[in-house]
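Hi V.,

Quick status before I head out on leave. The structure for the redesign project is tokenized and pasted below; the design run finished overnight.
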């Protein structure tokens, strides 16, 4: 099934450019031009008001609302959901000339251009407005979010007069009155409204979410040389209405420095109040911008990917890297990454197993602090996972499939109750983090406790068969088109891995640091008999494998399911969830996303090429890639199998999934976690990076139409830069520290010199 690009934005290596405005792409552009700094995110909407289709979305990581749909008739079914709630529109602006309010849906406007600069994080929009009264004004709106002082953001409006003179009225405010679009409700109660315009223009307002009591205190200082100011207080909003005189050649500037303070789970009310009391302290606009540019400089220095000979993918991958850092960079300890980042309301801002499985590799090789803090989120929410395990009649911890606060938010019981992959992904994440950073302190302080609790869950959720094999019954693996299956290969394999790794860590820590071991063991009453039981479960784990064909069976009975030729499904039937009854998609061997193949990527070194080939060939043409996470995994394995054209075809839309709106749903928000998969697609796919064996290895290949590419990974305190052309591979390190790895199977120790070897096709 081919996905088709819907090209709208101009190609440029460092910028995303919209030239001329087409309202049909209005909401897509809002998502694409979203800005975020992990703490908050704002869609690229027109701040001056717009009567066309829009989503005025402003979000804060960890500021959520909840509803309680009436589902809970059976034990374990979740009757509760949390969603990242649309919050204060701190960009609120209205512009009026001679009684006409600017609205790009109706205005006479020309020379529209919007540019997102990936080097600075600045979003600039400019156009010429021909007012009904015959004035011609060029308006430029700029905005950026500070990447270092994450509570701060800046908006600048410039009005240049091209023709005419008169008075322009600009209203600038902080507005909590927007609705959360998904629920069609406004979920804020407001107080502490204040507008003052004596020496300086200052605004502030506090919003409190109705059901969860989360708070956002929004404040702004406005710098403007106006002739008159009027204070405007409306329900849930505060604003200053400013008058300016304009004449031919004049230039008016309004600069708004915003500071948003949040009170979320685990924050102290006292600190929140202290921050509010000090709201006037802090950096000026120029320093904030300088530091933000510096932040992005560092990002590009250490994490850029350069693609020679393919500007579209060059722009695409830089957009992906930019979005990853906008969404998360470890600044706020214990937060997570929603499947849509901070760019929209779809998926409720919930975090999934995507975090450990798809996003973590990106951070492990780009930003240790971020990787650590993502795992810390799972520690912080261990109690919620324990609660969830109880609800599901298990011991230990059952991590949620979808969550904000740590509580399970997924109302689809088949997913919430049957998918164990969020829990085993946490174990995998801890293992991966330890492998890359050898941070034993983290493992002792947080990791071991999580591992034990996950094992306890696995030991009570699974069972022995009549033949004495251990496995999991009535589960759903990563392929969400199969539910209530027995012995899903992925689930069983991951469980075995989790038992083995936990037992290894228990043994090591007991030996190396008896006090740390005792502390954990006593705190959670761990008994040695548990370890004995886990060892047996692991040994007897049922991994459905057929030696004759080298095939791993996705689950017991999968090979006997009725076959569907996925390539023959009419294109109008997609997305299938909308066109096939829910039960129909479960009744055959069609796969939503890699399941056995996912395993083969995660534990790549454990499988032979023969096994990989057999399973790839079997599962590949059964997969419809209904999840955007899916094609990159196939692309990576196709590269490994030397199927380079196929690898490139699957890669086809990975970097431009949202820029070209391949799934036609970018308006709902960016596919943030798939963006991480695009990064993996290049580094693990074409770069051939493997990280699950001894050390790390590279096996580079190059797509036919690229002349060369360069990528960087940050590993063992070094930035390793790999340059691949069709002639040779060059690898160098930033500082010249010795780093061991293998290249095309050959052991190499990198040092100050550039390592070079011929390209092996
Ligand atoms: C996928 C899941 C994923 C979720 C959020 C679903 O469509 O099947 O694996 O966790 O989207 O990205």
């Amino acid at each position: 099934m081919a996905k088709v690009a819907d090209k709208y934005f101009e190609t440029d290596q460092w910028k995303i450019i919209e030239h001329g405005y087409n309202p049909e792409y209005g909401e897509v552009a809002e998502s694409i031009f979203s800005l975020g700094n992990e703490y908050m995110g704002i869609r690229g909407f027109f701040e001056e008001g717009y009567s066309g289709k829009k989503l005025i979305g402003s979000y804060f990581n960890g500021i959520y609302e909840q509803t309680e749909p009436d589902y809970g008739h059976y034990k374990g079914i979740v009757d509760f959901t949390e969603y990242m709630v649309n919050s204060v529109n701190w960009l609120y602006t209205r512009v009026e000339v001679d009684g006409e309010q600017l609205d790009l849906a109706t205005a006479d406007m020309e020379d529209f251009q919007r540019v997102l600069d990936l080097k600075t994080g600045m979003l600039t929009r400019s156009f010429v407005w021909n007012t009904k009264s015959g004035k011609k004004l060029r308006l430029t709106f700029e905005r950026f979010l500070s990447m270092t002082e994450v509570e701060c953001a800046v908006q600048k409006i410039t009005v240049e007069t091209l023709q005419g003179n008169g008075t322009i009225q600009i209203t600038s405010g902080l507005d909590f009155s927007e609705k959360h679009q998904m629920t069609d409700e406004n979920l804020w109660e407001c107080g502490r409204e204040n507008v003052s315009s004596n020496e300086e223009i200052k605004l502030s307002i506090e919003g409190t979410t109705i059901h969860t009591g989360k708070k956002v205190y929004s404040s702004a200082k406005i710098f403007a040389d106006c002739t008159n100011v009027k204070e405007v207080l409306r329900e849930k909003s505060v604003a200053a209405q400013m008058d300016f005189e304009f004449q031919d050649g004049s230039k008016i500037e309004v600069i708004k420095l915003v500071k948003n303070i949040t009170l979320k789970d685990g924050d102290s009310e006292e600190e929140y109040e202290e921050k509010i009391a000090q709201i006037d302290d802090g950096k000026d606009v120029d320093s904030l911008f300088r530091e933000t540019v510096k932040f992005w400089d560092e990002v590009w220095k250490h994490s850029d990917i350069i693609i020679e000979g393919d500007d579209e993918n060059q722009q695409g991958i830089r957009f992906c890297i930019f979005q990853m850092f906008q969404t998360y960079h470890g600044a706020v300890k214990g937060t997570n990454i929603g499947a849509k980042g901070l760019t929209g309301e779809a998926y409720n801002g919930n975090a999934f197993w995507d975090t450990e499985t798809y996003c973590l590799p990106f951070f492990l090789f780009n930003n240790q602090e971020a990787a650590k803090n993502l795992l810390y989120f799972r520690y912080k929410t261990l109690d919620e996972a324990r609660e969830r395990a109880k609800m599901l009649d298990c011991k230990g911890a059952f991590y949620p499939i979808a969550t904000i606060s740590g509580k399970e938010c997924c109302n689809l019981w088949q997913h919430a109750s049957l998918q164990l992959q969020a829990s085993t992904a946490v174990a995998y994440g801890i293992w991966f983090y330890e492998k890359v950073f050898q941070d034993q302190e983290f493992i002792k302080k947080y990791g071991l406790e999580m591992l034990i609790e996950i094992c306890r869950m696995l030991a009570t959720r699974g069972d022995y068969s009549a033949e004495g094999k251990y496995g999991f019954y009535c589960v759903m693996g990563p392929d969400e088109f199969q539910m209530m299956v027995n012995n899903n290969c992925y689930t069983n394999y991951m469980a075995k891995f989790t038992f083995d790794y936990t037992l290894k860590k228990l043994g090591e820590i007991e030996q190396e640091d008896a006090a740390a071991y005792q502390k954990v063991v006593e705190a959670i009453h761990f008994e040695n008999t548990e370890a004995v039981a886990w060892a047996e479960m692991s040994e007897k784990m049922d991994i459905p494998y057929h030696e004759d064909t080298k095939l791993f069976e996705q689950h017991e009975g999968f090979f006997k399911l009725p076959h569907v030729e996925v390539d023959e499904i009419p294109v109008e039937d997609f997305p299938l969830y909308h066109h096939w009854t829910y039960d129909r998609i479960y009744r055959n061997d069609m796969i939503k996303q890699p399941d056995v193949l996912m395993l083969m990527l995660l534990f790549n070194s454990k499988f032979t090429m023969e096994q990989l080939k057999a399973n790839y060939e079997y599962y590949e043409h059964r997969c419809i890639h209904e999840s955007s996470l899916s094609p990159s995994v196939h692309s990576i394995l196709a590269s490994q199998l030397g199927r380079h054209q196929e690898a490139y075809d699957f890669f086809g839309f990975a970097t431009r999934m949202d820029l070209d709106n391949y799934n036609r749903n970018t308006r709902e928000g960016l596919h943030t976690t798939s963006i991480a998969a695009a990064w993996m697609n290049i580094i693990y796919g074409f770069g051939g990076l493997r990280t699950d064996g001894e050390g790390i290895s590279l096996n580079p290949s190059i797509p036919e139409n690229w002349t060369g590419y360069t990528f960087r990974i940050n590993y063992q305190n070094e930035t390793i830069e790999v340059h691949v052309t069709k002639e040779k591979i060059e690898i160098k390190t930033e500082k010249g520290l010795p780093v061991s790895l293998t290249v095309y199977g050959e052991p190499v120790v990198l040092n100050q010199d550039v390592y070079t070897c011929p390209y092996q096709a």
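Above is the designed sequence. The CA atoms of residues 330 and 370 lie 4 Å apart.

G. will cover questions while I'm gone.

Best,
W.
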